[in-house]
Structures are given as structure tokens and as C-alpha cells.
Amino acid sequence: MTTTPSPASAQRLPRDLALVTVAIDAAMVLVNMAIQLWPDSPHGEQLRSTYALPGVWIPMVFSIGMAWVLAAALAWSHGRNALEKRGVGSVARLPHPRIRYAAVYIAVLVLNFYLLSPLFYEVQLLFMPGGHLHDLFGSTSMSAAMALFTVLQSVAQLILLVLGVWVSAWFALRAASAAPSDAQQQDDDEAIGASPRRAVALVGAAVFASLQMWSGVVVSRWTSVARGMDGLELLIAWMLPPLVAFALAFWGGWLGANAGLARVRPFRAVAAAALAFVLVQVSCIAIALAWVMLATWSHSFDNAGGLIGFALALVLVYSVLVVVLMRAATRWLYRRD
Q: Could you please report the per-residue DSSP string of 51-76?
């Protein structure tokens, strides 16, 4: 028995793919946590006491949330891109895209959780005290090597997340037919609905905030900046920056997107967010280094007021850079629309 293609169902596909992504991610995390914390598991009691520490569960929750937001934004982008490029009618004729996407995405997560993650952990043990590389090179050189490995591991996990969503979306959407005609495309643009400008700003802000949180997670793994904070201070320190980054990136994306946009072209928004993120980090690092050199020369850091002024100025510079560079990147990538 065949089902009648439903344009309304096709229009909901981007949202559904994002929801399916988050639901599968959440289920996989819950299953994995249940296996680790089960009372009869070998290290269950030790893990329960470890996860109860604010310094452990707070960064872990926000790290997981970052991955969910980024994966959902990418999944939505794949669905919206299919609607805009292939047309509502073509997407409506796809055979069970949500089920196919879910099946592949579950396989990808199982592979990541139970094969690649343990492999990364085994490699990480080589850098720990007592590991082969640690005994071979010594503690001094291993500190730099461990920091480099942490960054590379985080980059690899980020790439795997992006590839996992891409493979799942490709398998779910690959049976679509040829692109629609210009007249049909105009009808589809009207039928798809949703404000393209707002969608561009939301996708860009979600990707930018996720990348900013990802960089924070990377830095937290080999620094001790937040170890002296209590639970509430740590929670605020992890919660406030991504919210501020999202708001600033949304503002910049909104200013950069043309009010008369007909289509979202979501991967341009993703590219704009990634480009703006890289430029913001490079600019902030360069400005901070120049400021430190100048302050060291003029002895401006000899008192607490100089340090507080430096921190506030850096926050202000970051805020301005996010809005300006996000606006510029979005406008440049959407200049043909």
C-alpha cells in the first residue's frame, strides 16, 4: 500500500529532523549513563560520586547541550536545503525520510559511543602518568603534547558530529527527483513559509554559540580557571557565555541578512557562523596579546584595577567583534540574493 505524498508533511521535515536528532542523542546519553551508573556495574558507585561533583556534571551537561544544538541546527539545515533545492513535491515523495534518517543516525552514534570514544580514551591514557608516551618523553614535554592531543581530539569529535548528521541526511534525502522549475520554486518558497531572515539569524546564532561553547569545553579540559568556583558560580560561568554569544550572533546575522530574502540557503548561514567564529577568536587573541605586551611594558597590571579593566575591555571588544563580523560574513555570503 502506497501513501499519498503530503506537502504539509514535507514542510515539517526540517523541524522533524532536528527533533529526531535531539531525541536520539538524548536517548543514547540516557542509555549510556544508565549502563555506567547501574548499581551492579563495576565502577558504578565511583562514577555516581564523581558525576555528583559540580565541577564534573556542569561542564558535561553544557558540553552535551552544545553537541545537541549544533547537530539539530545542521539537521534542520539539511532538511530546509532539500526543500529549497528540490521542491516540496519532490521531498514529499521521499520514502520515509524520518525513519531512514533515524536509523542511520542511531548507527552513527552507536559507532561513536562504543568504538571511537573508547579508542580516543585509550590513546589519551598514553599521555597520562604511567603511560608509554609519558614515560618516554617525560612530564615537561608531555604537558604540551597532552594539550595538543586534547585539541585534536575535540576537533575530531566535532568533525564526526558534522559527518554523522551529513551521512544520515544524505541517506534519508538521496532519493529526491530533479530540481523544480522556476514557477514551481516560487510556489514552494511561498508554501514553505517561515521568515528566511529570522531563520538565517537563528541558524547562524545556533552554530556560532555551539562553536563558542565547544571552544570553552576544549580550554576547560587542560586549564584550571574554574576549579575554585562553587556550584552556582560555575553554573553561571558555563551558562551565561553561550547565551550572550547566541544573542550577539543573532543580532549580527539579522543585520547581515537582507530583509527581502526569498530563501534561507541554510548552509550559507552555517558557513557565515563558522567564518565569523574563526575571525572573532583570532582577533580576540591578537588583541589580547598586544594588550598584554603593552600593559607589561607600562606596568598596567600591577594592581587589581588594571586586570579588571583589561577583562571588561576584552568582553566589550568580543561583543563588538561578534556582531560586526557576523554581520559582515552573513552579508558577504548572501550578497547574491
A: HTSHHHHHHHHHHHHHHHHHHHHHHH
> In tens digits, what is the pLDDT along the chain, a chain of 337 residues?
445 567 888 899 999 999 999 999 999 999 888 888 887 777 777 888 888 888 888 889 999 999 999 999 999 999 999 999 988 888 989 999 999 999 999 999 999 888 887 787 777 766 666 656 655 665 566 666 677 777 888 888 999 999 999 999 999 998 655 445 444 555 455 445 568 999 999 999 999 999 999 998 888 876 665 566 777 888 888 999 999 999 999 999 999 998 888 899 999 999 999 999 999 999 999 988 888 787 677 665 556 666 777 778 889 999 999 999 999 999 999 986 6
What letters, b where the CB count within 10 A reaches 16 and e where it falls short, cover 61-75? ebbebbbbbbbbbbb
- Check: CB of residue 157 under 8 Å from CB of residue 165: no
**From the centroid of its chain, how far is CA 191?**
29
C-alpha distances in Å from residue 74, one per residue of 19, 204, 332: 12, 10, 21
- The H-or-E segment that residue 328 falls in is helix 304-333
Burial of 311 (0-12, 13-18, 19+ CB in 10 A): exposed
Which segments of 174-303 does DSSP mark as H helices, in order?
Answer: 182-192, 196-220, 231-256, 266-298
22: nearest Cα among 51, 50, 64: 64
By the 8 A CB rule, do 261 and 200 touch?
yes
Q: What are the distances in angstroms from CA 288 to CA 122, 239, 283?
A: 36, 23, 8
Q: What is the pTM of this model?
A: 0.88
Minimal CA–CA distance to 266: which of 9, 5, 13? 13
DSSP characters for 230-242?
-HHHHHHHHHHHH
In whole angstroms, give the CA distance from residue 19 to residue 64: 15
HSE-up (13 A, CA, CB side) for residue 260: 3
Is-contact 160 220, C-beta < 8 A? no
Greatest pairwise CA separation for the chain in angstroms = 80
